[in-house]
Structure formats: structure tokens, C-alpha cells
Design brief:
The complex is a heterotrimer. Chain A is an alpha/beta fold. Chain A is built from ten helices and 17 strands. In chain A, the strands form four sheets. In chain A, strands 12-10-9-8-6-7-17 form a seven-stranded mixed sheet, with helices on both faces. In chain A, strands 2-1-3-4-5-11 form a six-stranded parallel sheet, sandwiched between helices. A two-stranded antiparallel sheet of chain A has the order 13-16. Chain B has two domains: 70 residues, no CATH class; 211 residues, no CATH class. Classes of the chains: A alpha/beta, B mainly alpha, C mainly alpha.
Chain lengths: 372, 353, 306
């Protein structure tokens, strides 16, 4: 990832501590040149978390290179009045007219409230379910069908696993997470229907010690491929590598953390939605309020295959990926049963990725061991 | 010594001048750190001022951040009057918020004012019970209240999460598990003419009332005796248990009310966003304020101001978000160390006859 | 690997106790020394985080994780001495300064630690003590870090030293009655500063365990209150170093119950299972405390006991 802050610089200068800096010209840098589009990006965690926030920050870094665009960023902003005031500050103090509040919990009530207060500012939210007639037109939500990559992860995991037991470490049992767990499991079971996924829910988005404990427990239960949906997969990936099993990444590319065991990973490519929103704002076009995309649209991508991926897995996954890139592959189709035996998608029904019901998923499919 | 109006004036001047002086020293130290990193201290100061206090917007930003801290600081300062060190305000806050959300939802159709009052009462009650539990364990079982309140705080958060994401979850809350919304009619608005919610008003009133209670009533007098020496208080025939529990109830109620405000003025339902660390920040505010309910207000505003300015430093100077934590840390260490100066500065000493 | 099923739960608890307890152990031993001398340092959370950061950074820069551990200890020593010196000033409240230090240490660690979140530093080696077992799970559970063993040794040594050495007696006397210590001609403030510094050193080392062994990388959410909890455990352990060790084991093991139960399919109520360490600790405290006597072993000069 890029180093936007020049933090290394910070350390270097600590060594030669001098008051030279005091001589720097007085006065704050004037906010931003008036003719530039000022874009504000708000993160819920640290920008360099090897995960959710880093994926967003990578897109923000790319946006800085666009002509006529200037980006202001603020990290570790909690989903409280804090984010309302942060949005307000970017608008009032920096002149931002397009905001990317990137955490799900920013949407309601915080962003909606600010959108009402600042009707001329555009608010592009990540992950929310923008609904026509219910939410203002100066707001919108973008999200990616990352379950496509999770399905591919599952295929590769299914080919790799010898114990036929996969492990999934999840933060919370919410629709976005359940959809990933299910897609991963369906992918694996498309290879071998005997495969099961053991699920551990940690309860929060960033709990390094608990995530490590969960990974160890799963490995002890015979799991030999692990993946996760937490904000920073770093700990899970590293623990898997240490225990000598395979792992699929999430959010960003973690292959550097597990050179032996990293199979592939589901990554966001937020550059696509960011660019669309920024271009629309510059051109003065009305904003796209409901923006979704998968592999085909370039919203998500799969990490390159690791060394441990066998030829059969690679072929199988590439075939499915090619179909996904054409928009022809359907992941969630009937007959589909949940893990209590109830039919959740009737035979003959096939849900396209755009189906809103998929964004309200509240079950675990057959083959997942766990309860929501 | 310090008696009569001029003596009292001198004491007040001293109580003001010493922490302000320490704060000034902290700014100098922080400026040196910034200079060492190649940033212009003057620019940093200017941005802190702009972010926290320079405009109506920044003032409201500061006050909004201060509001919850005033109430959670009382959860530390009031039991402290009785000699208890309670650090579990976070638990009282989340349970207060949860109770308020449940009551607000159940009373949905009732007249809004009634609903709001009921929510406030429910929040305060839940918080009061939780902190009183720590007080009772101390009083009747001899369990150290510092550790029990910390443990109870963690347990409260676990129970809160379990209920919000389990039995009490609104199925319509998709990716952010929450309780059923209390509805717009039951929401508590902003202070007239300001973009700051009513939590600030509640906090100010709570501080004022408890200040009077502690300093100017018989109960407050008894409370301070207990805090000074519980054994002596018992010998004097004071009902120590009831007095201690009373302080815990009041403190817990303050934190519970903070939770209610988060639900009724900000989120509209109870969810994990309530666990924002306000309870822990309140501990610091209370100690800097030397457990004085009135002093809590300016200290909370200071903390709110520093965190409000943090955004400015991040966005304009590309400094890490932790920069304001460093500033706060330096400021608080120096303010706490400055306590040693009290009574030692010549200008504040009355001339002896 | 063979199927473990329910046997996985006790093994996970054992493994969890071994893996997770070390930072608790070091911090609570450090706090034990500090409190024995009559001072309380609530700021060990800040020192723990600072230790985790500086340990990781030094390991990354020098390529030697053991230098990282030492560096973490040194960072802790500096912050501990800072606490000790500030609290020597008359009228300064040690609890309050501790809370200030918690913020200062955490803030400084986050501030300086930004460049080290991404790089991968060399981590501490593990000693395989489970070679006697054929089960890979047991082997994994008994992969022990040398710091864990050092911690046990330290606990034993400290409880012996407090009772049997001149140094231990002086520390206890300073903590029980500063008047008596002063009458004997010992410099109370210096003794306490020293003990706070040593406590800081140990807490810093505990932090380096987090970043250099388990979970084994530096991030801002690494500690999330473990240092504060460890300080509380000292009261629970009644200022007895061996009890600190048991408390740390209990805490680590209880923390592993939640994930272990989920991995065998018990997935509901995970928040409640995850609260197990707190419930167990509180339960034991309620069961073993008595309203009639003050805590046995409590140093008389400690501000929270007055």
C-alpha cells in the first residue's frame, strides 16, 4: 500500500530532532483550490489494516492522481456523532462536495442526517441498501458482489482440502457476512459435496487475540483451509501460515503474509465506483444512487493463485471465473437448503446477483456447521 | 489561612491558574514534538484552534463531543466522593441505552413527552442498578469495587451485544444489528438554536445539581465524611452503606442517562455504536476535574475540543489520528503533575499578619 | 489430523491458557511489585501497548526479536520511571497519573507505530514441549514460548524473594508502612520509583509477547484492555506472585472457551461465552471475599485500600 502520510519520514526526523520545523512558513495551508473537486473519505479503522479500510484507502490514493481532484481523509472515526461532525467538518472546513463514508454503520442515521442538512453535497456510501423514495437523491450506496470471489475461494479451497473441513472466522452474523460464508461453502461443495465449513463468530470487527484463538481452535478440529470476514484478516492469515495450513484472503491481498499457504483471495477494487462517482460529480451529472458490481464490472477481483494451488483447482476456478466475467454464472439458485434442512431457494428459482433478497440473507446453507 | 472573601478568591484564582499553566506547558511540549517532526508548531496550534474553537461550527463540534463525557465523568466523580473508585461507567452507559431503547419501543404510541421521560428514567435506573451492584459488593461482600466495576462493565457489554444481536434484534436491521427503532416522535432533538443535542443540557443540569448536593446538603456532608474516613463515619453513627450506595446510584444514573441520550438523540435504537469508549474517557475527565462535578464541564469541553481538532490535523497536515492522543496524554500528565504546585506559589498565598 | 470432537475443548483451553496468559502474567507481576511498594500504576495498559509497538519496531529494524523484547522492556522502564517520579511529587494522585499514562502510552505507541503496522518483523521462536504426544493438536497446544517459562520462573522467584530476601522485606515494608521504612532509614520515594520502573519493564516485555509471538503482529487493536485487566488481576491474586500466575492461566484458558465451543458447533450465545473470563473472575472474588476483613496481603499504603 502507498504511504500517504510519509510516516517513515516522521520517524526519520525524530532522530534528528531539531526545532528547524518551527521556521516553516506560518499559517495553515489554505483549504483547497476553489476550482478543484474536494473529495472526503472517512474510514472506521486504521487505513493500513491489511483489510477493509486499506481497500478503501487504496482507491482514495488512486483518486489523488486524478486531475482536478483533491482528497481529504480521516481514519478511525467511530459510528457516532463523531462521524456526523467529521462529515460536517469536511464540508464546512475543507469545502468537500463529495463524501465517501465507507463504513456500513455511517449510513443510518448519520449520513442521512447530514445529507438532509447539506442537500448540495453528494454522499456515496459503501454497503448500504439505498432505496428509491426512502433515501434522498444526494445520497447513494455502492457495493461489490464479493461473494463471486468467495465462491472462487471456495472452489480452490475445495480442491486443496484433504480433511474436507474448511474454517470460516466471521465477525458478526449479518447478511453481508452470511452471503460470503454461503458462497464460500457452495463453491467448495461444488467440488465435493462432503465438504463442511466450520464457523466461528468472534463478535466484533477487530479482535486480534480472539481471531488467533479461533484460528487455532479450528485447526485443532482438523480444518485445513481457513478464511475469514473480519476487518483485518492479517492475524488469521498469519496464524494459518504458522500452523501450516492453507488460507484464502479477504478485503485486500494478503499473499505476502503467507507465502506458503496463501491460495487466493477475494479483494475489493473500489477504484471503479470511486471513479464513476467523481466523474459524475465533475460533469455535474446526477449521481448513481444504487451502484453494484461484481467481477464483470470491476468492483472486485481475485488475488493471483498461490504456490499451493493445484492445477485442477486453477482450471476449475478459471472456468467459473470466465463465466462470471461474462455475467452468466449464478451462485444462489434453487433448490437450496439451509443447514437446518429448510428450503430457502425453491427449485427452478435462480437469483441473479442484483436480487435485493440476497442482500438480506439470514441463513447458513447446508454444509455450514453453526447457527445464526 | 485562606479565609474570608479575598482568601477564597485567591484559592479560585489558584485553582484556575495552575491547570491553565500546565495546559500551556503541555502545548509548548507538544509544539516541540511537532517541530521535531518537521511541522510548524504555530501552524499546528492554529489548526487546533480552528478545529475546536474558531467558529460556531467548531464550537458545536467540540460541545457535541463533550456532552457524553460530562455524564460518564459523573459516574466516576460521585462514587469518588464516598471514596470509591468506579471504572465501569461504560457498562452502565450501554445498559442504560438498551433499557431506554426497549422502553421507547414498547411505549411507541404514547405521548412523546411521556415516552422521553420514561426512557430517561429507564436508562438512569439501569445504570444506577449496575453501579450500585459494584457498590453493594464492596459494602456487603468486601469485593474491591475497582475490579468488580471493570468486570461488570465487560459483562454488561457482553449481555448488551447478546441481546441486541439476538433476542432483541430488529429483523429489519440488516448489516448493523440494532433493536427496533424508537421512532422519530420519541427522538430528543437539539438544544434550541444549536446543532448540539440535549445530552449537553442534561449533563450541565446533572453537574449543577450534584455539585449543590455534594457541597451544600447534609447528605453531601455525610458523603464526604464517609469518603474521608469510613470508620470514623461509622463511629459517628452514619448509615455508611446507604450513603455509599446513594453515591453509586447517582453516578450510575448519570452514565445510564448518557446511554439514553445516545439512543434517543443520536442513534434511534440501541446498537454496538453505543460502545464508543465514552465510559473510559469519562474516568480521565473525572480525575482531571479532581472529582469536582462543576470542574467536569470545562475539562470535558477541553477533551471534546482536542478530539474535534484531531480531524483538522489529519486532513490538513496528514498527521496520524493518534496525534491528538499524544497531545491529550501530555496535557493530562502535566495537569496531574501540577497538583503538586498548589499552595506553593507565592502570589496565591495570603499575606500573613 | 485425527478427529478431536469434544476433546478439542479442553485442549483449546489448555492451549489458550499457555498462549494467552503470558502478557497477563508479566503485567500482573510487574504491577504486583509496584503495588507491594505501596504505589498503584493503572497505566500499565499504556505501557503494554507501548511495549508491543517498540518490541515489534525494534525486531523489524534489527532483525532480532530478542532485542525487540529488551527494547520493549526499556520503553516500559522509561514510562514506569516517569510514573514513579511524577507520583513522588507531593499531593499527586497515583491512580489519576496512571490513567493519564494509559492514554499517553497508548497514544504515543499508535503515533510512533504507524510505520510498523504493515511490515513483517521476525517473531519469537516457540519451544515444542508436546513432542511426547502423538496428537498434533496437543503438540500445538504445548508449543511454548520461552517468555512463558521465564514468567513462571519469575513468579516463583518473586514469591520467594518477597518472603526471604532483604530486598523483598524492604519493598514490603515500604509498601506497608512508609513511616516504619523511613525510621529504618530507607528512602521511600526512591524505592517506590524503582519498583514502578521494574513494573513498567515487565509490562513492556508482556507487550512484546503480543506483537512478537501471539498473535504475533503489531496493530492498534492488539491489546484492547488486557493491561487494565491484568492490573485488576493483581487485586484478585491478593498481591501474591504465584496467584498472579494462576489468575493469568485461568484468564487465558477461560478466554479460549468461546472459540473452542464454536468450533465444535455450539455457536449460539458466543458473546456470553466470550465473557466467561470476567464472570469466572467476578464469581471467585465474590465467593472468596469477606466484608469483615480487609484483603489479606494488601499493602497498607496502597491508595485503593484506604
Amino acid at each position: 500500500m502507498s504511504d500517504p502520510i510519509g510516516r517513515r519520514e516522521v520517524l526519520k526526523r525524530l532522530g534528528v530532532a531539531g526545532a528547524l520545523g518551527a521556521l516553516a512558513p506560518y499559517g495553515p495551508r489554505s483549504a483547497q483550490a476553489a476550482d478543484k473537486l474536494v473529495v472526503g473519505v472517512i474510514y472506521v479503522g486504521p487505513r493500513d489494516d491489511y483489510g477493509y479500510n486499506q481497500a478503501q484507502a487504496q482507491a482514495a490514493a488512486a483518486m489523488k492522481k486524478l486531475p482536478g481532484v483533491s482528497v481529504v481523509e480521516q481514519e478511525k472515526v467511530p459510528e457516532t456523532t463523531d462521524v456526523q461532525k467529521t462529515m460536517g467538518s469536511m464540508i464546512e472546513q475543507d469545502g468537500a462536495t463529495l463524501l465517501f463514508p465507507t463504513s456500513y454503520g455511517y449510513f443510518d442515521p448519520h449520513m442521512l442526517k447530514m445529507a438532509e442538512k447539506y442537500p448540495k453535497v453528494r454522499f456515496a456510501h459503501c454497503g448500504g441498501l439505498w432505496t428509491d423514495g426512502k433515501h434522498p437523491k444526494n445520497t447513494g450506496s455502492y457495493f461489490g458482489y464479493i461473494d463471486e470471489c468467495q465462491y472462487l475461494n471456495g472452489i480452490v479451497a475445495g480442491h486443496t482440502s484433504k480433511s474436507k473441513k474448511l474454517g470460516f472466522i466471521a465477525a458478526k452474523p449479518i447478511p453481508q457476512v452470511l452471503r460470503n460464508i454461503n458462497a464460500f461453502t457452495l463453491g467448495a461443495r461444488s467440488v465435493d459435496s462432503k465438504i463442511t465449513t466450520l464457523l466461528v463468530i468472534t463478535g466484533d470487527w477487530a479482535l486480534p487475540v480472539k481471531e488467533a484463538e479461533a484460528a487455532n481452535s479450528l485447526v485443532d478440529q482438523g480444518v485445513d483451509v481457513l478464511t475469514c470476514h473480519v476487518d483485518s484478516p492479517k492475524v488469521v492469515v498469519e496464524t494459518a501460515e504458522r500452523r501450516g495450513i492453507s488460507v484464502c484472503g479477504y478485503h485486500a491481498n494478503q499473499s505476502a503474509l503467507a507465502p506458503k499457504g496463501y491460495l487466493t483471495g477475494a479483494e475489493w477494487n473500489w477504484v471503479t465506483p470511486y471513479t464513476i462517482h467523481i466523474q459524475d460529480a465533475i460533469a455535474g451529472k446526477p449521481m448513481v444512487n444504487f451502484m453494484r458490481g461484481g467481477l464483470k464490472e470491476g468492483f472486485v477481483r481475485a488475488s493471483g493463485y498461490g504456490k499451493a494451488v493445484v492445477e485442477g483447482a486453477r482450471k476449475n476456478a478459471d472456468t467459473v471465473k470466465a463465466q462470471m466475467l461474462k455475467g452468466e454464472y449464478v451462485i444462489f439458485k434453487g433448490p437450496l437448503r439451509d443447514n437446518t434442512g429448510k428450503t430457502v431457494i425453491a427449485s427452478g428459482t435462480a437469483f441473479k446477483q442484483t436480487e435485493p433478497l440476497l442482500e438480506q440473507m439470514n441463513y447458513l446453507t447446508e454444509g455450514v456447521i453453526g447457527k445464526v | 489561612m485562606a479565609s474570608g472573601p479575598s482568601g477564597r478568591l485567591r484559592q479560585s484564582a489558584e485553582a484556575l491558574a495552575i491547570p491553565v499553566g500546565a495546559l500551556g506547558a503541555a502545548m509548548v511540549v507538544f509544539g516541540l514534538v511537532m517541530a521535531a517532526l518537521g511541522r510548524s508548531p504555530l501552524e499546528v496550534y492554529e489548526l487546533i484552534y480552528q478545529g475546536a474553537f474558531a467558529s460556531a461550527f467548531s464550537w458545536q463540534n467540540t460541545l457535541t463531543r463533550a456532552a457524553p463525557l460530562i455524564l460518564t465523568a459523573l459516574c466516576v466523580a460521585l462514587p469518588a466522593q464516598a471514596g470509591l473508585m468506579v471504572i465501569g461507567g461504560e457498562g452502565a452507559l450501554v445498559l442504560g441505552g438498551l433499557a431506554a431503547a426497549v422502553v421507547g419501543h414498547l411505549l411507541g404510541g404514547a405521548p412523546p413527552l411521556g415516552v422521553k421521560l420514561a426512557m430517561a428514567l429507564a436508562g438512569m435506573l439501569a445504570g444506577a442498578v449496575w453501579i450500585a451492584l459494584a457498590g453493594a459488593l464492596r459494602q456487603y461482600r468486601g469485593v474491591n469495587e475497582t475490579i468488580s466495576s471493570l468486570l461488570l462493565g465487560y459483562i454488561a457489554i457482553a449481555v448488551f451485544n447478546h441481546l441486541v444481536e439476538g433476542p432483541l434484534r430488529d429483523p429489519a436491521s440488516l448489516n448493523k444489528p440494532s433493536t427496533t427503532p424508537i421512532g422519530d416522535a420519541s427522538m430528543v432533538g437539539t438544544l434550541p438554536g444549536l446543532d448540539v443535542h440535549w445530552g449537553l443540557g442534561f449533563g450541565l443540569v446533572f453537574c449543577l445539581v450534584t455539585y449543590v448536593l455534594v457541597k451544600h446538603t447534609t447528605y453531601g456532608f455525610a458523603l464526604r465524611i464517609v469518603g474521608g474516613n469510613a470508620r470514623a463515619a461509622r463511629l459517628a453513627g452514619l448509615p455508611v452503606g446507604a450513603i455509599v450506595l446513594g453515591a453509586c446510584v447517582l453516578g450510575g444514573a448519570a452514565a445510564g442517562l448518557a446511554g439514553m441520550v445516545e439512543v434517543a438523540a443520536v442513534h434511534g435504537s440501541a446498537n454496538a455504536s453505543l460502545i464508543a469508549g465514552y465510559g473510559y474517557a469519562g474516568i480521565l475527565v473525572a480525575f482531571i476535574a479532581r472529582q469536582n462535578p462543576l470542574a467536569i464541564v470545562p475539562v470535558a469541553v477541553l477533551v471534546g475540543g482536542i478530539s474535534a481538532s484531531g480531524g483538522m490535523l489529519q486532513r490538513r497536515l496528514d498527521l496520524p489520528d493518534a496525534t491528538v492522543l499524544v497531545l491529550q496524554g501530555i496535557a493530562f500528565m502535566l495537569i496531574l503533575a501540577s497538583e503538586t504546585v498548589y499552595g506553593r506559589l507565592k502570589i496565591f498565598r495570603p499575606e500573613r499578619a | 489430523m485425527t478427529e478431536l470432537g469434544w476433546w478439542g475443548v479442553p485442549i483449546a483451553v489448555l492451549g489458550g491458557a499457555v498462549r494467552v496468559s503470558t502478557p497477563f502474567l508479566f503485567v500482573s507481576l510487574g504491577e504486583c511489585i509496584t503495588e507491594k511498594s505501596g504505589r498503584i500504576n493503572l497505566g500499565l495498559e499504556g505501557i503494554l501497548v507501548m511495549g508491543a509497538m517498540s518490541g515489534y519496531a525494534l525486531s523489524y529494524l534489527t532483525g532480532n526479536p530478542w532485542l525487540g523484547v529488551l527494547g520493549a522492556g526499556a520503553a516500559g522502564l522509561v514510562l514506569g520511571l516517569l510514573h514513579g517520579l511524577v507520583c513522588n511529587l507531593p499531593r499527586v494522585n497515583d491512580i489519576a497519573v496512571g490513567i493519564g499514562l494509559m492514554l499517553f502510552g497508548t497514544g504515543l505507541a499508535f503515533f510512533l507505530g504507524k510505520p510498523y503496522v504493515q511490515p513483517k518483523a521476525p517473531t519469537l521462536p516457540a519451544m515444542p514441549l508436546g513432542g511426547w504426544s502423538a496428537s498434533p493438536q496437543v503438540q500445538a497446544a504445548l508449543e511454548v514460548n520461552p517468555l512463558f517459562l521465564i514468567g513462571i520462573g519469575l513468579a516463583v522467584a518473586l514469591s520467594w524473594a518477597f518472603r526471604n530476601t532483604r530486598w523483598g522485606l524492604i519493598v514490603r515494608m515500604v509498601g506497608d508502612s512508609s513511616d516504619a521504612a523511613r525510621a529504618m532509614g530507607y528512602a521511600v520515594p526512591r524505592m517506590r520509583t524503582l519498583c514502578t520502573g521494574v513494573g513498567g519493564f515487565l509490562a513492556g516485555v508482556g507487550g512484546s509477547f503480543l506483537s512478537l509471538y501471539y498473535p504475533g503482529s503489531w496493530s492498534e487493536g492488539l491489546s484492547s484492555g488486557q493491561g487494565l485487566m491484568a492490573v485488576a488481576l493483581v487485586i484478585f491474586a491478593r498481591w501474591n506472585p504465584m496467584h498472579c500466575f494462576y489468575a493469568a492461566l485461568l484468564f487465558g484458558g477461560a478466554g479460549a472457551v468461546g472459540p473452542a465451543l464454536q468450533s465444535v458447533g455450539i455457536t449460539s450465545g458466543y458473546y456470553l461465552f466470550n465473557a466467561a473470563p470476567y464472570v469466572v473472575t467476578l464469581g471467585i472474588m465474590i465467593a472468596t471475599c469477606s466484608p469483615r476483613r480487609t484483603l489479606a496481603g494488601a499493602p497498607g499504603e496502597l491508595s485503593i485500600n484506604r
